[in-house]
Amino acid sequence: MKILHLHWSLFVIFFYNMKFSKSIYIWTGAALAVIIVVLTLLKLTGPTTNPDGKDKIMGRISLKIDASDQVRGNRESKVILVEYSDFACPACAANEAMINKLVNDYRDRVAFVYRHFPLPYHIHSFEAARAAEAAGRQGKFWDLADLLFSRQKEWSTSPDFTSLLSDYAKTIGLDEMKFKADMQDPAIKSKIDADIESAKAAGLDHTPTYYLNGVEIINPSSYEEFKKIIDDALQKAN
Amino acid sequence: MMRSKKLINWLIVIFIILSFLGFSDAFFLTISHYTIKTVPCVISSFDCNKVISGPYSTILGVPVALLGVGYYLVLFIMMVAYLDRNQNGMNYRYQKILLLASRLTIIGLIVSLWLIFLMAFIIKAFCLFCLISALISIILFVLGLFILKKSQQE
Questions:
Q1: What is this structure's pTM?
Q2: Contact check, Cβ <8 Å, B84/A26
Q3: What is the pLDDT of residues A191-202, one digit of tens each?
Q4: From the CA of B97, how many Å to the nearest CA of chain A?
Q5: Residue B15 vs residues A14, A104, B136, B138: alpha-carbon distances, Å
Q6: Which of A23, A45, A92 is closest, CB to CB, to B84?
Q7: Please, what is the average pLDDT of chain A?
Q8: Which end of chain A offers a freer environment for a tag, N or C, measured as fewer CB atoms within 10 Å?
């Protein structure tokens, strides 16, 4: 009761004090500013699909899958997901499990294409891409890709990437001589360069970047979100 | 006297704006810390992921960015409180808030210098928004010095 009494008396004093109104403006302004910033930032970084369910359209990419592309799933599918990725990129590694699960679940209905976009400031990125392509010559592109992503912390900053690669080659059972020779093949270098050029042409500026039927999608933050986007595309295609 | 008073009011307004910017910046960094999986690797020389989510990004399990949010918010509220009380002509009683807030900025300065050192020599990667926060902290410290000096003169 005493507290309540104090409270009321204060209220009356403030109410009769004309300067109180200025206080209201100051504090309301400050509180509003804080709330607006918090809400804006949460909204900007929050769920990535628009409320109406449409995906934001950002960039576009030409959709031709050619013989040099690394494809999983159904090559003939009308729904094609192209991923531009970098073996040394932490966000790409974090997304890898999600992509593998999607590949597993949509194996018959979707074509999953992996393209290289090694970022210039990741030191072994380009070499890692070469290594994966070289492993691909022995039918083990995905084996090495998975290994590179899962051991990213080990090799991405290591001064001795070459000997680590030898270990990885042994782990997945590659013919090491052929693997090392293929890594130096200019055809592999030009394949990666072509991937980079196609990405730059589409204005790509981050990895991983996903294009669904040629249209860039905002990176989904969960498997469910990704699944919904693919399901929608499948529904449209049929 | 009058000029000095005007100047100090301007310093306070800048202080409030900067602490508000610092708060926004730190809040953004906190979100980035918690949603690291969806932060893509952007083409730039700054490797934010490494800094924001690395082993140095938390102190006893609390994200450094979240501490930053608290720090800037406290400074912001203190200065708004001073501005509010001061306009009611109760200057002499609330001078303490002003002096305390100004002195607190040394915490931001020390922490910021330490974090810059960590980024430059230990993590060996920079994050743009962390550097902005450090810059804000340093400017706040300088402002704090000016405010302390001016209020002594009065």
A1: 0.56
A2: yes
A3: 999 999 888 888
A4: 16
A5: 28, 55, 10, 11
A6: A23
A7: 84
A8: N
